[in-house]
Request: fold
Amino acid sequence: MKAKVPINKHYNIGDIDKRIYGSFIEHIGHAVGKTYRIIFR
Reply:
C-alpha cells in the first residue's frame, strides 16, 4: 500500500505576516546571547 499526497503550489490559505520573522529572529538572538554569556563568563 502506498500513500499519495497531492500538492498544489497555487493553493493559498493566506498570507504570512512579515512581523513573524522579526519576532523569531529576536527570540533566536536572545537564546544565543544568553548561551554565549553562560559559556563565556
About this structure: The mean pLDDT is 81. Residues 16-41 form one domain. The helical segments are 19-39.
